[in-house]
């Protein structure tokens, strides 16, 4: 009787494991958009001779430190410590681990209500002949932290000794917005404290999916559909990694011929800007 009872318990547990937990994980994986293939191409993932693939120039949600165009280039990151320690930290935070709270996700980290109150108070003081307010809104940090929903898909040491990491983000949002499913790749070279980056949405975002952001070159506000860039920047801030300064032709800080949007209004016929566009 005991042997029969033990056999029944074992069979029940085995059935539960095989047809309970595993199908749930398989179904969750099946609900994600198909993963990109590995290799050397615009849509591919994987390490290629110590670096990462570039993004297709038509990809609306993709960034790579190997691209040289403004829409898809992302500067490498730099950090303190060893490559393995930095990779450990990235995996921990990207997969839901804690990190120090960030500034509010608003311009300059200031509360919109505080800024609005300051503007209204200043306007009222001007109209009534009073001095301007002395206290200005200060940057505020978020209460707690919002964990990332990444899942570690691959981590290995490359032939040249670098750390390669791939994390899949957005599985929890795959049903509502498949473009939030992003394959993010990171390479930590063994001889330098920098991180090479690439991130791409598996499904292009719709024409109406994006965020408004400030711009100095095109117009005061632009509609940005590149969710992969926003995701990496949020992750970088959570990690407290720094941006490697990179001189590019499209950055007005390094190119005096790059026309800013307000310069177009003030001096639309300037030959210097017209020549730079040829």
Automatic annotation (TrEMBL):
<protein>
    <submittedName>
        <fullName>Uncharacterized protein</fullName>
    </submittedName>
</protein>
């Amino acid at each position: 009787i005991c042997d029969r009872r033990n056999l029944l318990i074992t069979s029940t547990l085995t059935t539960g494991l095989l047809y309970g937990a595993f199908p749930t994980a398989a179904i969750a994986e099946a609900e994600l958009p198909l993963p990109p293939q590995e290799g050397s191409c615009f849509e591919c993932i994987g390490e290629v001779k110590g670096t990462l693939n570039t993004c297709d120039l038509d990809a609306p949600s993709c960034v790579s430190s190997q691209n040289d165009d403004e829409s898809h280039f992302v500067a490498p990151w730099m950090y303190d410590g060893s490559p393995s320690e930095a990779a450990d930290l990235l995996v921990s935070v990207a997969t839901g681990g804690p990190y120090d709270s960030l500034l509010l996700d608003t311009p300059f980290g200031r509360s919109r209500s505080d800024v609005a109150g300051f503007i209204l108070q200043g306007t009222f003081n001007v109209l009534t002949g009073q001095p301007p307010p002395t206290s200005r809104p200060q940057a505020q940090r978020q209460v707690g932290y919002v964990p990332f929903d990444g899942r570690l898909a691959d981590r290995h040491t490359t032939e040249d000794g670098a750390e390669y990491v791939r994390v899949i983000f957005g599985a929890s949002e795959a049903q509502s917005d498949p473009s939030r499913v992003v394959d993010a790749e990171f390479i930590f070279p063994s001889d330098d404290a920098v991180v090479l980056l690439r991130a791409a949405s598996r499904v292009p975002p719709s024409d109406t999916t994006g965020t408004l952001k400030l711009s100095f070159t095109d117009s005061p506000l632009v509609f940005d559909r590149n969710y992969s860039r926003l995701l990496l920047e949020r992750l970088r801030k959570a990690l407290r990694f720094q941006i490697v300064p990179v001189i590019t032709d499209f950055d007005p800080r390094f190119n005096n011929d790059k026309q800013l949007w307000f310069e177009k209004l003030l001096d639309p016929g300037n030959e210097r800007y017209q020549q730079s566009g040829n």
